[in-house]
Design brief:
The chain is an alpha+beta fold. It is built from 5 helices and 6 strands, in the order αααβαβββαββ.
């Protein structure tokens, strides 16, 4: 076979021999492209998006590993904040303690309470999990006070160790210029343990 190809090449004149070699190289290149390279290129184009996604995932994992200390400190901070907030939330059995603390704060600020009443039937479920149910419990307070005393009372309610906030209030002028009738709607969050 080698003899036939070499005889064939020797029969071709010098000028056409270059064209023959170029044609043979072109044929070998095309054969190589269609048989070997093209399937590999098709496979690479299919894999390329997956490679990009994996490299993005690896980069994100590196960033997350770099932020691991930050995440751990943030978890500790949030656990501490949760523990503080949990201490402020009382159980349904402790509603009387909540009312007593509101009354005590009112007395400290020269506010005379006429009526303080929780609306247990109007409480709304805020959150339920396997262990507890959390409720928003509205409390009505009717009292008499001056403006400054009322302002101090509201400030102490916010800074108190109870999870308690004012949803609305109204002030009506009283007979005395310094004493006014107050009507406040407070709301506290209470929980109830679920039975196993």
């Amino acid at each position: 076979m080698k003899l036939k190809i070499s005889e064939l090449i020797s029969k071709i004149d010098e000028k056409n021999r270059h064209y023959f070699l170029i044609g043979a190289l072109l044929f070998i290149f095309l054969l190589d492209y269609f048989i070997l390279m093209r399937p590999q290129l098709v496979t690479l184009t299919k894999i390329n998006p997956e490679i990009k996604l994996l490299s993005q995932d690896i980069e994100k994992a590196r960033e997350d590993i770099g932020k691991l200390d930050f995440y751990q400190t943030e978890v500790k901070r949030l656990e501490s904040q949760l523990a503080q907030t949990s201490q402020k939330i009382k159980s349904k059995e402790e509603v009387s303690i909540i009312l007593e603390q509101i009354s005590r704060l009112a007395n400290q600020n020269n506010i005379r309470i006429d009526q303080i009443m929780p609306f247990i039937e109007e409480q709304k479920v805020l959150l339920e999990d396997k262990k507890r149910s959390y409720y928003a419990l509205p409390i009505l307070v009717q009292a008499k006070s001056g403006y400054h005393d009322f302002g101090r009372f509201l400030n102490q309610l916010e800074e108190n160790d109870l999870f308690l906030y004012v949803t609305s209030f109204s002030i009506i002028a009283g007979e005395d210029a310094r004493t006014h009738a107050l009507k406040m709607n407070l709301q506290t969050i209470v929980f109830e343990e679920k039975n196993p």
